[in-house]
Structures are given as C-alpha cells and as structure tokens.
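Hi team, as promised in this morning's meeting, here are the two structures we talked about. I've kept the exact order from the run log so nobody has to guess. The first one is mostly here for context; it's the second one we should focus on when we meet again. Sequence first, then the predicted structure tokens.
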Amino acid sequence: MLTSSNRLLRLLSLLQTRRHWAGGELAQTLEVHPRTLRRDIDRLRELGYPIQASSGVAGGYAFRAGHALPPLLLDDDEALTVAITLRTAATGTVGGIEEAALRALVKLEQVMPSRLRHKMDALRSALVPLARHTPLVDAGLLAALAAACRDQLRVSFGYTDGRGQASTREVEPQGLAHTGWRWYLVAWDPARDDWRTFRLDRIAGQVTPGAHFRPRPPPDGGDLRGYVARSVGQAPNAEDARVILHAPRAAMAARIPPWAGELDALDDGRCLLRCAGQSPDMLAYWLMTLDVEFDVLAPAALAQRLRQAGERVDRMLQRRAARDEGL
C-alpha cells in the first residue's frame, strides 16, 4: 500500500496520462477504496489542481484548465528538458523572455534532487553559448501570431520586404516556423491569391486581429518548415539543377532532406540530385560542403560558378606555393 503522499503523486501522474478516468478504474489502479480516491481528489483540488468530476454510468475524473497554474509534477527527463529549454531561452532568439526564463530556471533548480542538479551543473559547465548574430523576435509578437493561427483570425501588420519596401499586409495565418536562424509566418495572402512567408523581424508595429477566416489546406501537406526552407532559398527565375553525386542514394538521403532536392539512384555508387529554383551561388557552396565527387548536368550557370570558385582556389594555392618557395 502506498503512503498518502506517494499515493497523491501517483494519482496526479495517472490523471495526466488520460483525458478521462473512470472512478472505479482509477481506484482499482491505485488499489484504494473509492472513498479514499475521493478524499485524495479533494486534497489535490485544495493544492490548486483543476480536477473535474462527473457522475453517472460514464462518470469519473479529468484534468481541466484552471484559473491559476498549480505545482507541476515532472519526471527526471522532463525536468532536465525544461531546465535546458529555459537556459536556452534566456539567450535565444525570442526577446522579452530572458528574465522570466532565468527566474523560472532558478525556481526549478532549487527544488531539483541532487542527482538532477549534478547533471545540470555538468551541462552548465560544458555548454558555451556563442555570440548571437540572428535578429531578436519579440515574445508578444510570437504570442499574438500564434493565437491568430489557433483561432483562425485574419491579421494585419506593417511589413518591410527584402528590398526595403514598406507595405501593410492583411493575411490568413497558418503557422509559425523557425529555421534555426529566423522566425517566419506562413500565411495565405488574399491580395496575391497565394501562400507567402513573412520574416517576423521585418514586421513593424502591432499585429491587429481581424475577422475569422475559413481554413484551407496548408501548403506542402502541412510541412511548414520545409515550405519555408524552399521559399526563402529559391531565387527568382532560377533554373532547375541536375547533379550526379558519386555516392549511393541511401548515403545521400541521410544527409540531404527531402525538401532540399529529389534523389534518384543511378547505380550502386551514384545518384541524381534534382533541385528546383535554387540560386547557383547557394548550390555551388552547398555542393562543396557535401564533400563528395559530383558532375553538374544543368544549369550552365552552376557549372560557371563552380569554375570561378575553382579558379579562385587555384590562384590562392599558387600564391601560397610562391610564398613557401621564398622562405
């Protein structure tokens, strides 16, 4: 038989694993009498946990949203994950949450058992934050856009595009995506009758919510991150690229995400990479970082970029050889 305090923790953990528990089943799982279960439920309510009870044949207990945040019950992995996330948030790309993240982290670490505190100390000493070179995004802006996506509300805002042209946009927000460098809003733009991506650091002023809109199927089957990656990486009027990679398709598929290009096996040691709408400059850099032999079939502009890059490298090596001979 569990002690009273351990039984409360066990009950709280069980209630968080399902949307609804039948009273008899919950009492049987805890190996207690239904009256004991009712007393334990009342104790959790006194602590602030919003547990609702229903009667009848399908009666039971369920967690519901409350008016205040009660104490949280976290296992070891969850506590470490939250702590790492808070530490990252304190120096991340979302502005306005640094102080709150640090306060929450201090509270969490104060109540951590020693075994978890030792792990956090090791992580703190090992993780070295790098200087941030990405634009900050206001937490209030993120919250406002996320709420509009959830509630399916049109939003209007001031926006400055990549050419520096300012405009007012009214869109139907679908979702938010973070590429690792910047935050983007994916939205349907009625004025252009098409999907668009908007960099959040280019949104100026307040986001004004408007009327409800009828949801539509999201782009790329809901893969917003892939859609954003393709949208921001595509160059206007760029030709499709076809490149033979001298490596098995399986090896390249493990390194090249599906949204970056399509891979077709040619034989056991080669595959064909097809990329749509990418700039030659970006592709030239990317192909060099793959560290595999390759042959460019198209476009000619890509082969020209690589030829120019190779000539620059060759001149650099010649200068280095001349310096070495002069020593």
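And here is the second protein, the one for discussion:
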Amino acid sequence: MLKNILIFLFCSTLFANPEHNIIIIDDFVSDEISSTLIKYQDRTLDSTYNMGTNRAYINRSTPPKIQNIARMISERVLIEMEKNFGASREVFHVSHAVIHARIPGSFCPYHSDNITFVCPIHGKNPCTIRRLCSENCMGSFEPNHTPWYDFTAILYLNDDIEGGEIVMEDGPFNKIYKKKIPIKKNRLVIFPNGPEYYHEVLTVKKGIRHNLLLWYTGDPNYTHRIIN
C-alpha cells in the first residue's frame, strides 16, 4: 500500500503541469522600496538605454543602501523558494542581480534561462525552432550560456506602462500551458529554469518597464559575492 502511494506521488510530481510552479506574489515589497530602486536605476542611465534597455548591476560600486535592499529582497525570495520548491537556503544563492528597464519598442526574444533546444535540421535559435520545428524533430535540450541558473525571480517595480508582459510556455512545442502574466507594481514572479519554462517579454508600447531581476544557483562557483 505504501509503495503504491509513493509511486502515485512520484508520478503526480513528474507529470504535474509546470504552470503550477510559476509562483506569483503580490505586494511583495512596499511602494517606497520600488521607488527607491527606480530612482537609483534612472541615475545610472547610459548609452545602452538608446538601444531599448538599461541595466544597473548590483556590484561593489552599488551604493550600500541599494545593496541592502537587494539583499533583503533576495532573502525573502529564498524563503519563498524553500516553501514552494523545497530549495534549501543553505544550497541556493543569488548568482546575478540587476535592476532593469525597457523603453517603448524594447522586447526580449523567446528563450529559456539555462537550456536550449538544438535541432539538427533547424539549428538552436529558439525563435526559429518555435516556428519551424515539429515535435517529431529529433533534437535535444542542451545547456546554454548560463547553465548554472536554477531559478529566476522578477520583481516588478511599476505598472504605469503598456505592453512588456512576460509570456511563458512549456518549451518550443507548447503542449501543456501558455501563460501571460500581467504586470503589477510590487508583484514578484518566481519560476524554475529548464525546458518547461520558455518565455519572452512582449514589446513595451508605452512607458518604461522597471524591474529587479534575480537569478539563483546551487553552484557555489557562481555565487553573487555582494548579496550573499
């Protein structure tokens, strides 16, 4: 009897809809914290902004106040990861942290954060594969340029914009789910990385899309030395 229960639980986990692992938490931080991060990010604008995006990396040159805010948010995200995914705070840490902005016309192409599908016929560009591959293509998933990323966390800092939503689905063949997540100020979105969590950011139509991005890893070689 116990054996049957364990097999049932294992199969339930194995074949569960990956959409259920996309965690959305509203009012994760205060308006004051979001405004502070936006103001700091706006002061770091550089030439990359003219290409549609601007990134303020959290590093040694970041003001201590901003470092402390990022550290506090990171710790709270880790608590949610442990609660929702069983990801131990002793194992997982921030690998990469950036305050990000997108202006009108900016978007992020279809991709997965730590893996890519390689097709011997159509290559490995995820946008091309999404359009041309069928599920009969004899390709395989392989690590991409950031294979150490295990989880992604997105904290939206404002919602006075049009467009810019993230759309997620279970890989290039998309058989299980497709989810567009509305942008809401102070909303946190967490999801595992892998073939079931391909995503894209739709084109920003109006306003500037501000968010804090945190990537988490279980590989100690890629631990963020400032935040952790």
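Starting points for discussion:
The first helix runs from residue 2 to 14.
The CA atoms of residues 92 and 218 lie 4 Å apart.
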